[in-house]
Design brief:
The chain is an alpha+beta fold. The radius of gyration is 19 Å and the shape is globular. Helix content is 34%, strand content 13%. It has helices spanning 4-19, 74-83, 96-103, 134-144, 164-187, 195-204, and strands spanning 29-34, 37-40, 56-59, 64-65, 89-93, 149-152, 156-161. The chain starts with a helix and ends in a 30-residue tail after the last helix. The protein has a single domain, classed as 3-Layer(aba) Sandwich (L-fuculose-1-phosphate Aldolase). The protein contains six helices and seven strands, in the order αββββαβααββαα. The longest helix is centred in the last third of the chain and has 24 residues, at 164-187.
C-alpha cells in the first residue's frame, strides 16, 4: 500500500483529536499533501474503525481513486492545499469552543498573545455556507488569507500546518483561545493587544520553540536564551 505511514498517521491524529475532546464522533476531517495530490479521510467512517486502505487518494486535478469516497469537505482541503504551498496539512474539527464562537459569527481578537499562533493578530470567522460546497471553500480561503487557522461560520474550525503534529497543535491552541475569549465575554470586557504589540509577538514567534541552530541570527526581535555555560557541567 502506498503512503502507509502517512495513512496511519492520519488515523492516529483523528483519534487523538477525538480523545482530546477537540471533536466528536465522525465529524471533522484531515488531509495531507503527497506528491501529485493529497490523502484525505473518507466520508462517514468512524475514526475508531477506520483502516489505512480507506484513506482516499486524490490527484492535483481533484479526482479520487479507490473504493472509498473522500470526506464531504474535500473541496476546501483540495483548494487550501492548492492555494497554500506553505502548508502540508489541513485539519478540520467541530471543537466546542471554536464552534460556539463560529455560531455567533465572532472572530477571535488579540485577547492573548497566543493568537499569534495563527500567523496574524486576529483569527477570523468566515461567512456561512453549506457544508461540502464550493461556496464554503471560497469562504474558508477568504477567512484564512495567509494565516494558519480560521473559524467557519456556524460550523467549526480549520487548522493548518506543515505536519499533522503542527496542525494539531494549532487546533489545540485555537480552541483554548476560543475558551479564553468566551470567558472574557462572560465577564463583559477584555483588553485587546494593540497592532504594535502583536507585531512584536509575530516577530518573536519566528524563534518560538526553536533551537539556536534553527534561528535566523539577523532577527532583531527574538527570544534570547541565557548565557551558554558549555557542553555540560561535568
Amino acid at each position: 500500500m502506498k503512503h502507509l505511514a502517512i495513512r496511519e498517521d492520519i488515523i492516529a491524529t483523528c483519534k487523538r483529536m477525538n480523545a482530546s475532546g477537540l471533536n466528536i464522533g465522525s465529524a471533522g476531517n484531515l488531509s495531507v499533501r503527497i506528491a501529485g495530490g493529497l490523502l484525505i479521510t473518507p466520508s462517514g467512517i468512524a475514526y475508531d474503525t477506520m483502516r489505512p486502505e480507506q484513506i482516499v487518494e486524490m490527484d492535483d486535478e481533484g479526482r479520487y481513486y479507490g473504493d472509498f469516497v473522500p470526506s464531504s469537505e474535500w473541496r476546501f482541503h483540495y483548494d487550501i492545499l492548492k492555494a497554500r504551498p506553505d502548508v502540508n496539512v489541513v485539519l478540520h474539527s467541530h471543537a466546542t469552543n471554536c464552534s460556539i464562537l463560529a455560531c455567533c459569527r465572532l472572530d477571535i481578537p488579540a485577547i492573548h498573545y497566543m493568537v499569534g499562533v495563527s500567523g496574524g493578530n486576529i483569527i477570523k470567522c468566515s461567512d456561512y455556507a453549506p457544508f461540502g460546497t464550493k461556496a464554503l471553500s471560497v469562504a474558508a480561503l477568504a477567512a484564512l488569507e495567509d494565516r494558519m487557522a480560521c473559524l467557519l461560520g456556524n460550523h467549526g474550525v480549520i487548522a493548518l500546518g506543515k505536519s499533522t503534529a503542527a496542525a494539531f497543535n494549532v487546533l489545540q491552541e485555537v480552541d483554548n483561545l476560543a475558551r479564553l475569549y468566551i470567558g472574557t465575554l462572560q465577564i463583559g470586557k477584555s483588553v485587546i493587544l494593540s497592532e504594535a504589540d502583536m507585531n512584536v509577538v509575530l516577530q518573536r514567534f519566528k524563534t518560538y520553540g526553536k533551537q539556536l541552530k534553527d534561528i535566523d541570527p539577523n532577527l532583531t526581535e527574538r527570544v534570547e536564551p541565557p548565557v551558554h555555560g558549555g557542553a555540560s557541567r561535568g
